[in-house]
Design brief:
The complex is a heterodimer of chains A (317) and B (269). Chain A is of the alpha/beta class and 317 residues long. Chain A has helices spanning 7-20, 37-43, 55-67, 78-82, 86-94, 123-128, 141-153, 199-212, 230-238, 255-265, 288-294, 299-310, and strands spanning 25-29, 48-50, 71-77, 100-105, 134-136, 158-162, 182-186, 191-195, 217-222, 224-226, 243-250, 272-277. Chain A folds into two domains: 7-162, Rossmann fold, CATH 3.40.50; 182-310, 3-Layer(aba) Sandwich (Rossmann fold), CATH 3.40.50.920. In chain A, strands 2-1-3-4-6-5-10 form a seven-stranded mixed β-sheet, with helices on both faces. Chain B has 269 residues and is an alpha/beta fold. Chain B has one domain: Rossmann fold, CATH 3.40.50. Chain B has a five-stranded parallel β-sheet with strand order 1-2-3-5-4, sandwiched between helices. In chain B, helix 7 links the parallel strand 4 and strand 5 (230-235). In chain B, helix 4 (121-134) runs parallel beside helix 5 (153-164). The two termini of chain B are 25 Å apart. The chains are: A alpha/beta (317), B alpha/beta (269).
């Protein structure tokens, strides 16, 4: 597998290789580019359509193509490829269980200074309530590249939440097939941080620091939010005295909600702290780091809060 | 070739069956079903739609997307009569265990897609037409929409997309009855001039009397211009066939009651 310099390329390069040998694979873009999309335009233009600034139609056209035997990937900035066309996703794709993958770019605050119109903080909750929808929030290139064949070839609709830029590879040479939906990256007796997307990297940094300070902290990467194997999650957190969820996503309806539901119904009795984006619009500028800090998602605030919490102290944010 | 008088007889039968289904179930959209009845009869009995009821999944079939899903009421008797499912099933409309509900879904043989949420069908139809073209199939895709439905922005996204991609295998039929759920469309968002709007969007657009089989069949004939999708603007009357139900929003989802029921039966017979 090549080393990708942008997490989007892991998807589109792998998709391109599959599409070269399968003319039924189609890529539709809602007027969004990515470096590797140019390969489709240059080499297999018949399998690529820029549908313009019309996301509702993009989903419906994808449904029609899927009904004639095509396997379709649609691509756009997350709020527009999900919420703008939610009704089409619900009825055209989900109610008919059609093989269409929605690849949304710009997870969380990736488009920080473009403002709340472009912040992707509600998509996980909304995609999760669509019946039959698979929801993936991958944390590295290897994972994305590995799941592309199943995204394309498996039946039913899927959503994959993409970040922008390059991130350290967590799973290179791991041989993981990502079928369980989550991976325990490190164990922790005092605290387990269940994180998703790029926040997995933050969680590892925080866990390292906390463990060095005597709070034995683990990290679980929850990369497939739906379907969700409750047994696997219960096992992942059962050996820890506390559980925190960490996501660059609204605190409403994201993995904090998922994990909380499972732990509560199982009667696990383990204290839970949900860390994510507040249920407000964030208008502040300055970039992604300040926005994350505003919501207490920077490493330093996380370390303070989780240290205080494990010592039964106050939450500073 | 089925004669015009035979088509008229068939349409009268469809309206009667539709009416009895609704009266029996106590629910249903009569107004928009009656305005589109003649359009559907022309498609299914006039030799327009290539289909095989014994093989609903035939990959070279012509497809009808009933985008104004509430008109499915008029489609059910037609599909049953053509052999997609037993006529007796019509008696189960809206019942537990039936697949024949207020809006159509793909559990019912002959129904191509789930509709009921307006504005979706044209995009799906565009995808079907594009898919058929890519698959080297000559089958046509027909999408029935309403003038009220044309107030949905998604319709115009799809209209421009289909023109951009020269989807000449796609026909939209606008059941232009001038009335939506609660009012005349002219009083809410006026969609006129409909013919000009579709022409401006890049379609081969023409008006017809949506209750004239001669005009409907002539409009459906042939491919039209080779590089444009076709828009048949069918000027119709909401509630067509029952005088007191015509051109009013009262029977969009409202039901006749008391003496009106026998009066309607008499006019439909």
């Amino acid at each position: 597998m090549p080393a990708y310099t942008d997490i989007r390329d892991a998807l589109f390069e792998e998709l391109f290789e599959l599409a070269l040998n399968d003319r039924f694979i189609m890529l539709l873009s809602g007027d969004q580019g990515a470096f590797s999309i140019k390969k489709f335009q240059d080499s297999i233009p018949d399998q690529y359509i820029n549908v313009g600034v019309a996301e509702q139609n993009m989903i419906s056209v994808a449904a029609g193509l899927a009904m004639t035997g095509h396997k379709v990937v649609v691509y756009g900035i997350i709020p527009f490829a999900t919420i703008r066309c939610l009704e089409q996703i619900k009825i055209d794709l989900c109610s008919q269980n059609l093989p269409v993958t929605i690849a949304g770019v710009g997870a969380g605050y990736a488009y920080a200074t473009d403002g709340p119109t472009h912040h992707a903080v509600h998509d996980m909750a909304l995609m999760r309530v669509m019946p039959g929808m698979q929801v993936w929030n991958p944390s590295d290139h290897t994972m994305i590249a590995s799941i592309v064949p199943q995204l394309v070839n498996d039946p039913g609709p899927k959503y994959i939440r993409l970040d922008k830029g390059a991130f350290p590879d967590l799973y290179a040479d791991s041989g993981d097939d990502f079928s369980e939906g989550l991976t325990v990256l490190r164990k922790g007796k005092d605290l387990m941080i269940v994180a998703t997307g790029i926040m997995v990297h933050r969680a590892l940094e925080v866990a390292e620091s906390l463990s060095a300070a005597g709070i034995d902290t683990g990290v679980t990467d929850l990369y497939r939010v739906k379907p969700f194997d409750e047994d696997v999650l219960r096992k992942a957190v059962a050996g820890s005295n506390r559980v925190a969820t960490l996501e660059e996503n609204s605190i409403v309806g994201g993995i904090g909600t998922v994990v909380g539901e499972v732990m509560a119904e199982a009667g696990m009795g383990i204290p839970l702290r949900r860390l994510g984006i507040a249920d407000v619009f964030r208008w502040e500028l300055g970039g992604r780091d300040p926005l994350q800090a505003r919501d207490g998602l920077d490493a330093s605030t996380l370390i303070d809060n989780l240290t205080n919490w494990t010592n039964d102290g106050a939450h500073v944010n | 070739m089925v004669s015009t008088s035979e088509l008229k007889d068939k349409a009268a039968w469809v309206r009667r069956r539709t009416f009895e289904m609704v009266i029996s179930a106590g629910s249903g959209h009569l107004g928009g079903s009656f305005s589109s009845t003649d359009i559907l009869v022309a498609l299914y009995y006039g030799g327009v739609l290539e289909h095989d009821p014994s093989n609903p999944g035939w990959d070279r079939r012509g497809r009808l997307i009933a985008s104004k899903g509430h008109s499915s009421l008029g489609l059910y008797p037609i599909l049953a009569d053509r052999g997609y499912f037993p006529l007796a099933d019509l008696e189960t409309f809206n019942d537990a265990g039936s697949t024949l509900g207020g809006h159509p879904d793909t559990r019912t043989p002959g129904i191509e897609t789930v509709t009921g949420s307006l504005g979706h069908g044209l995009g799906i139809g565009a995808g079907l037409a594009l898919g058929a073209k890519r698959n080297g199939q000559s089958s046509r895709t027909y999408v029935l929409i309403g003038d009220g439905e044309s107030q949905e922005g998604a319709i115009w996204e799809s209209a421009m997309f289909a023109a951009q991609h020269k989807l000449s295998g796609l026909t939209v039929i606008v059941d232009n009855n001038g009335v939506s759920a609660t009012d005349h469309t002219a009083n809410t968002i006026n969609v006129e001039p409909v013919v000009d709007k579709w022409t401006a969007a890049g379609w081969d657009s023409r008006p017809v009397d949506g209750h004239s089989f001669d005009e409907l069949l002539k409009a459906f004939e042939g491919e039209g211009t080779s590089d444009r999708p076709k828009a048949v603007i069918a000027n119709t009357v909401k509630g067509k066939g029952v005088s007191f139900m015509e051109d009013t929003a009262a029977f969009h989802h409202g039901l006749p009651s008391g003496d009106q029921i026998e009066l309607a039966r008499a006019e439909l017979s």
